[in-house]
Write a structure and sequence with these properties.
It comes from Celerinatantimonas yamalensis. By secondary structure, the chain is α+β, with helices and mostly antiparallel strands. It contains 6 helices and 6 strands. The radius of gyration is 17 Å and the shape is globular. It binds zinc ion (ZN) (2 copies).
Length: 139
């Protein structure tokens, strides 16, 4: 995984503490999709909390710079993830909000073929599949 300082420089963003810390959150967490609120809460427990408004602003800047990607899995709360891994499909439990992601060459190739057949030049793509996970069905 790249160094967050390098990523900021490559994106021509000034290296500031909040930008660094927030990027690190996305690199360190095993859960790759995080909301502004979640990030804010995780900083509250640390030694250097960051104001919620700053978290929102930095997430916006990092998204504009192409370092993060924004999703609205539930149609309401934006979740962000690092924008550097290849295309993947998101499976979303509409009950508990769990997000699982996977990559599949056949799906990626097929989507590219379909887009090409409509003469669409893909600049961005997202595949979301909604359902209910086993755990949510039990309760
Ligand atoms: Zn669930
Ligand atoms: Zn993802």
């Amino acid at each position: 995984m790249s160094d967050p300082m390098m990523l900021l420089r490559q994106a021509q963003l000034k290296v500031t503490q909040p930008r660094l810390e927030i990027l690190r959150r996305f690199m360190a967490e095993d859960h790759p999709h995080q909301s502004a609120e979640h990030i804010y809460q995780s900083f509250l427990k640390s030694n250097h909390p960051i104001a919620l408004a700053t978290v929102y602003r930095v997430l916006e800047q990092l998204t504009q710079a192409g370092l993060l990607k924004r999703h609205y899995f539930d149609g309401k709360v934006a979740l962000f993830e690092l924008n550097q891994h290849s295309q993947h499909v998101h499976l979303i439990c509409s009950q508990c909000g769990e997000v699982i992601e996977f990559e599949d060459d056949i799906i990626s190739t097929r989507l590219a073929q379909i887009a090409a057949s409509y003469q669409l030049n893909i600049v961005d793509q997202a595949v979301y599949i909604y359902g209910e996970c086993n755990r949510s069905q039990e309760v």
